[in-house]
Each structure stands twice: as structure tokens, then as C-alpha cells.
Design a protein that fits this description.
This protein has 245 residues and is mostly helical. It has one domain: Heme Oxygenase, Chain A, CATH 1.20.910. It is built from eleven helices and no strands. Pathway: Cofactor biosynthesis; pyrroloquinoline quinone biosynthesis.
Length: 245
């Protein structure tokens, strides 16, 4: 970037370019997941580790909610908590993700214990929660803009997994259907906020860096899965070990 600020349209184009280059739909592990080239144990490892990301999203959003300065902003962001935590036991995105881990054959108590997580999953997800907790509000909101790109990956994931894995059913993947409307709604708000409030070149660089960081979080989680579960003999001590089929 130059020292001159971008127009809002050019800033949006730069944000979208980051997703086109860095979003984790391009990762080899994700391509293998979508294309049916993973074993059941590898799919289980993905679902288990992704659960930690899903269950920490409400905590991430709560840290930002506490810092938002107006009731309008808090009302907007509060919807994300309801989306993920639900408004009653057994509802919301986290509960639906547990149905996914149930559906691929994982014990729910084991999943919720977090005992089988890869160490890198802990580090990556915790780094994201801490980023949103500690960075300026503009950067924290910008880091959520990976949701701009999620409808495409959701459509690919659902169709590919249903086509290729006989242990996956539409009920197993029920998490994803609401996200097809929730993610665009949330990203529309976040993008409008960033376009309005990132006015200086420094602020614009910060929001671009925030989105790059979030893409790196998601990419690094798949790097860890790829390293541990694609090549035999690399699963860290204590991490989930698939049963021989």
C-alpha cells in the first residue's frame, strides 16, 4: 500500500483479493476433504479439531461485544452469540457441530473434553480469540471478514462430503445450512463497518493485516491436520488417533 488511503471500493477489492489468495478452501487438506480423498479417521480428526474453533467463537464474540461503544453495535454483534450458542440448550451452531461429530462416529464426551486436540489447534484458535480481545475494534471486526468467502466453501463441503462419504448424511451436516444466510448477513455488516471506518492508510493496512491474520489462523489449522494425519507416524502424543478400519 501507498501512504494515500484507498477508496472504499478499492479497499473492498483488496480485502477480497486476500480471500482469493489465502482462504483455506485452497488448502490441500480441504481439497482432499471435499473431493472424498480422506479416510473416515481423517474426517473425524478434522471434525474434532474444528470443534474447538466452533466452541470458542462465542467467547471471541463476547470479548468484542463487551468493548463495543453503542447499543446498535452491541445488538448487531449479539446476534452472533445467539447464532453459535443458541437461545436454549441444544440449539445454535456449537450444538449443531456436536451433531456433526456424533454423525462421523466420535464420542461426544471425548469431543467436549478437548483431550484429543492437536497442540497447533489450541495455539491457532487461542491466538484468534486473543487477537479479537486485544486489538482495536476496527481490526477485530475486520478479522471476521473471512465470512465473505464462506458460502462458497460451505456449498463445496456439503455437496462433496455427501457425494463421497457414505457415513455422512444431511443430518450430520445440518450445521452448515443456517450459515448460508448467517455468514452473508454478518459479513455484509462487517464489510460496511470497515468501509466506513478504515479511512486512513494506516487503518486500511491494519484491516488488511487483520484479514490476512485470520486467513492464516484457518490455514494453520489445516496445516496441522495435514501434517499429523496424512503421513503416518506424525500424530502428537495425546492427540486423537483414528481407529484402524
Amino acid at each position: 500500500m501507498t501512504d494515500r488511503p484507498l477508496s472504499p471500493d478499492d479497499l473492498e477489492a483488496a480485502l477480497r483479493a486476500i480471500g482469493a489468495e489465502r482462504y483455506h478452501n485452497l488448502h490441500p487438506f480441504h481439497r482432499a476433504l471435499h473431493d472424498g480423498r480422506l479416510t473416515k479417521g481423517q474426517v473425524q480428526a478434522w471434525a474434532l479439531n474444528r470443534y474447538y474453533y466452533q466452541c470458542r467463537i462465542p467467547a471471541k464474540d463476547a470479548t468484542l461485544l463487551a468493548r463495543l461503544p453503542t447499543a446498535d453495535l452491541r445488538r448487531e454483534w449479539r446476534r452472533r452469540l445467539v447464532d453459535h450458542d443458541g437461545d436454549a440448550p441444544g440449539t445454535g451452531g456449537v450444538a449443531r457441530w456436536l451433531k456433526l461429530t456424533d454423525g462421523v462416529g466420535l464420542d461426544r464426551t471425548y469431543v467436549e473434553s478437548l483431550a484429543g486436540l492437536l497442540p497447533a489447534t489450541h495455539f491457532a484458535v487461542d491466538a484468534y480469540v486473543e487477537f479479537v480481545r486485544d486489538r482495536p475494534i476496527l481490526e477485530a471486526i475486520a478479522s471476521s471478514l473471512t465470512e465473505l468467502f464462506s458460502p462458497t466453501i460451505i456449498s463445496e463441503r456439503v455437496s462433496g462430503m455427501l457425494r463421497h462419504y457414505d457415513f455422512v448424511t444431511p443430518e450430520t451436516l445440518a450445521y452448515f445450512q443456517p450459515r448460508l444466510t448467517q455468514a452473508p448477513r454478518d459479513s455484509d455488516f462487517a464489510l460496511a463497518y470497515v468501509r466506513e471506518h478504515a479511512r486512513t492508510a494506516a487503518e486500511q493496512k491494519a484491516v488488511l493485516d487483520a484479514l490476512t491474520f485470520k486467513c492464516a489462523v484457518l490455514w494453520s489449522m489445516l496445516d496441522a491436520l495435514d501434517y499429523a494425519y496424512v503421513v503416518p507416524g506424525r500424530i502428537p502424543p495425546g492427540a486423537f488417533t483414528p481407529q484402524a478400519s
